[in-house]
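Protein: SET domain-containing protein
Species: Ilex paraguariensis
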Amino acid sequence: MASPEEVKLERFLQWLQLNRVELRGCNIKYCDSNKGFGLFSSNDVSDGILLVVPLDLAITPMRVLQDPLLGPDCRAMFEEGEVDDRFLMILFLMVERRRKNSSWKPYLDMLPITFGNPLWFSDDELLELKGTSLYRATELQKKNLQSLYDDKVKKLAEKLLTLGGNSDSEVCFEDFLWANSIFWTRALNIPLPHSYVFPQVSVEQDSTFSSTRKPWASSDVNSGEELANEEGGRRFEVDGVESQVSGIASTSQKGETVWVEGLVPGIDFCNHDLKAVATWEVDGTGSTTGVSFSMYLLSAEQSPFQIEKEIFISYGNKGNEELLYLYGFVMNNNPDDYLMVHYPIEAIQGIPFSDSKFQILEAQKAELRCLLPRSLLDHGFFPACTLQTKSNNKCTEPRVCNYSWCGQRKTPSYLNNLVFPEDFLTALRTIAMQEDELCQVSSLLEELTGSGGERQPSDSEVRAATWEACGDSGALQLLVDLLNMKWNSFALSFDGFDDEVNVVG
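Structure follows.
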């Protein structure tokens, strides 16, 4: 007896074939509950083209606006500024999932039901992130999504469902959360030919997207209900998000490319890996694939072809915090991982002389956070440049000016060699400032500007005064405290993710 995954996959493959998707060098398979579905090589193809998807099948803002059922109301809301292009697609996904006779059902049934990103964490799981920037970002995002759902989404979704004769279908916040997660984990930034996005507009039609040719009309998508009478071949699926496009074929009359966000059934199932073996590209003329206005998956393999090998694309150079926040997974030994060291602005309000320190921070253009790529710490806390010989011309010039004020405080030799950005250390010096140091800064600046404040000191002058008064003792101690807090929260947060797979299907 076929498993639920096999039944969904079979129906989806038929739906892809019915909508002219071509699997030329790959198959789709169910991996496991963690990875979901993945794309695997099936046979060697001389041109390296693994999969071809007509762009007519992509879910884009244009398609939503041209939908025969939902389009008119969505267009009215769009023109009145009630919704933007991303909101349109999220709303469309939410409504189509609830429609009983949706033509997108075979595709929607293949999509994940829940996600591993923090928006889907339980309260106890979310508490494990407390103290990290990820915790704060998740709290704010969930609060904003709930507010958006209560104020706008619920009413709009129920209205659109009523249009389709599904007035008895109730929506809930989880439906909106699901649609939002589907969009942000699977949407691609598609480079489309200008002529495809803006086809020749008929003079008689007063509409931004109306045309004699309607490539985005939902009527072009064959419904899952039609599959019962179809005998057909097999097709497959994949999972992906951001990938580099190495080439774009444009047939635009003006030779322009228009970047449009959208979901591309098939290609959007490619899983992620650091060593991507495929990229996706757009073929506007059909000269590469034989299918005009299509997106295709291109093998990047240089080694001998291996059958049944999973085909990965790259989601981009992202650290583990970003991967977890967007996609719900982390990677062991991620070379693109980074550490964000952050002093919350809310915490400044609770320290002595906060108002004065806020003014000094603004005057110095200081930064309250810094990102440290993993590679920066390959040589400890000192950049590789300091380990080279002094004669090596590749060493950069010192990035910190001499902050000596009349020679009273010498700039230490280490200051130009630390991997921590000076803008961030400047902020920490200010935050850690004691009362007597604050008075000294004011006194030094008065020497420059006059007691009546005849002119405003420059940011470098304020930094020099702060350095002269404070030095680095307080800043470095505060930095150690922040790093200790970060380490403790990270150790707790990612303890449960150490064995997490590095792909999501």
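Remarks: Residues 133-163 form the longest helix (31 residues).
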